[in-house]
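Input record, target 12 of the design panel.
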């Protein structure tokens, strides 16, 4: 193959890398709805043009003027905007507000400039979620905003900056070009060309993710939002707002897709963390009490995430679950310092034990200061290690047989199975009204954890399913068809419907018609019926 072809490919790769790094997001084509500048344009009545008319030539009938003056309320159709200050929650929680749909794709530099300018003009407005201010047609899909409260002991972050985000992509791209030059020198043009193209392609892929992260950082800096790293910090509290698009599907955590060439987050398409507002402890619990008082059943749902999860993804998952479960109380989450890195398992394992004292403090303060009648807990994967240890300590210190927590859901717990059966589970049962354990034989993440830790995990049914008195163990192997088989608690319709029933119509596993009992070596456990007829009936309440 001619060397000039490979040289052209290399130049093309460089130009693409520069385009991605320089633009950050691809501008959208102008449409008749947005007029190309973010303002709703009025289409002409006819296709053959518009004739300019001087103002003096236009004569408005008096009856039309009178009609406008007589109906001023029709002028108040502006979309609702969320204020930065706390407002009373609507009757149906989680606190959701309708937002306009149109958010044109802009580059990070443009977004930062616009938000910084708005912040100087009205500092309070910078704390509101990013929303377009223009009116949009009623038939245009929009999004809703879910308010989620949080507790975390992560370290506050200041941002990595543009170089920190993009240097891996730059390194890959230039490394590929350098490799091509080396192969050219030693007359290995074909091999060098292929390797260079692969390296540049990988660089573009990494640059796309880096561009998304940099946009999020710019948005956070412009709005004054808090940012958290994987480092250890002090226990702190706050609230955040997450967008749920109207096109959202149950069980999906919509995000920009490389296959769709999506280079920026859009709230009308994706589940987006809009802002993070830190609060002093006193103000936090005052807001929590107000939200609980305004919820129909005065209840709370707290989610504790697992390994390889960022603060942002924990917030997004909490909002998605609260929305899909139609939870009418206050959604909350606790975020411990996970590294949000596939190769950070050892550090996450240590931090999941380090955080126990803070998680215990958080749970006790919520139980004592929220005035809630019902507190429900969901823990996933390694989050079960932290929550199990915290509940074990809480139960051991309880002087009376008081059930502090209502429903406790343990999803795919990455906990030593024997330790769970003998030490942790009995204490969780003591502190809770009902405990449900979801386990699977298809969980590749727990299989890897077993190989690392040397012992079976409580969320893995192999070699023997975990059965504990007072715990409803449910084997989800038959219905979990995901690739890794580890995140079924939030993305499998059948399991979401089962959790929906636990929260809205509590009943033991033996009374849920879509579950079938199985007698195992250690006692009774349950599996989902293959037909799923009962789950479909429950799912009717979950679908939107």
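The sequence produced for target 12 reads:
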């Amino acid at each position: 193959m001619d060397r000039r072809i490979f040289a052209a490919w290399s130049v093309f790769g460089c130009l693409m890398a520069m385009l991605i790094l320089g633009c950050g997001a691809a501008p959208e084509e102008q449409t008749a709805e947005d007029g190309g500048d973010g303002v709703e344009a009025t289409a002409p009545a006819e296709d053959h043009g518009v004739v300019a008319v001087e103002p003096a030539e236009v004569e408005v009938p008096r009856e039309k003027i009178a009609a406008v003056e007589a109906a001023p309320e029709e002028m108040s159709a502006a979309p609702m905007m969320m204020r930065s200050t706390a407002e009373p929650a609507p009757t149906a929680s989680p606190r959701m507000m309708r937002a306009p749909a149109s958010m044109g794709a802009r580059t990070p530099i443009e977004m930062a400039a616009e938000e910084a300018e708005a912040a100087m003009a009205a500092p309070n407005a910078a704390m509101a979620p990013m929303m377009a201010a223009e009116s949009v047609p009623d038939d245009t899909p929009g999004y809703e905003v879910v308010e989620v409260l949080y507790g975390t002991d992560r370290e506050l972050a200041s941002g990595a900056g543009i170089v920190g985000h993009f240097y891996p992509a730059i390194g890959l791209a230039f490394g590929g070009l350098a490799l091509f030059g080396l192969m050219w020198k030693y007359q290995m043009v074909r091999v060098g060309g292929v390797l260079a193209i692969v390296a540049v392609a990988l660089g573009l892929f990494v640059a796309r993710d880096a561009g998304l992260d940099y946009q999020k950082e710019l948005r956070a800096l412009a709005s004054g939002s808090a940012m958290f790293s994987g480092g250890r910090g002090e226990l702190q509290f706050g609230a955040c707002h997450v967008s749920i698009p109207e096109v959202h599907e149950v069980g999906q955590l919509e995000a920009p897709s490389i296959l769709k060439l999506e280079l920026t987050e859009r709230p009308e398409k994706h589940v987006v963390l809009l802002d993070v507002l830190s609060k002093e402890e006193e103000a936090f619990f005052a807001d929590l009490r107000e939200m609980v008082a305004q919820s129909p059943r005065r209840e709370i749902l707290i989610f504790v995430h697992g390994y390889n999860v960022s603060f942002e993804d924990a917030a997004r998952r909490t909002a998605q679950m609260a929305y899909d479960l139609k939870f009418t109380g206050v959604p909350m989450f606790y975020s411990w310092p996970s590294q949000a890195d596939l190769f950070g398992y050892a550090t996450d394992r240590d931090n999941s034990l380090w955080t126990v004292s803070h998680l215990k403090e958080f749970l006790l303060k919520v139980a004592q200061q929220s005035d809630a009648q019902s507190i429900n807990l969901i823990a996933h994967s390694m989050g079960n290690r932290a929550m199990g240890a915290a509940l074990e300590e809480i139960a051991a210190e309880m002087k009376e047989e008081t059930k502090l927590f209502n429903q406790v859901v343990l999803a795919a717990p990455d906990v030593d199975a024997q330790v769970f059966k003998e030490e942790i589970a009995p204490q969780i049962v003591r502190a809770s009204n009902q405990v449900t354990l979801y386990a699977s034989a298809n969980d590749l993440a727990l299989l890897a954890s077993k190989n690392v830790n040397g012992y079976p995990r409580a969320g893995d049914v192999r070699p023997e399913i975990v059965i504990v008195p007072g715990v409803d163990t449910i084997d989800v192997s038959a219905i979990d068809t995901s690739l890794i088989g580890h995140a079924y608690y939030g993305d499998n319709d059948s399991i979401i419907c089962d959790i929906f029933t636990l929260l809205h119509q509590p009943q033991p596993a033996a009374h849920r018609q879509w579950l079938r009992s199985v007698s195992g070596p250690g006692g009774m456990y349950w599996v989902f019926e293959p037909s799923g007829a009962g789950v479909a009936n429950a799912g009717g309440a979950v679908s939107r």
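The longest helix spans residues 189-223.
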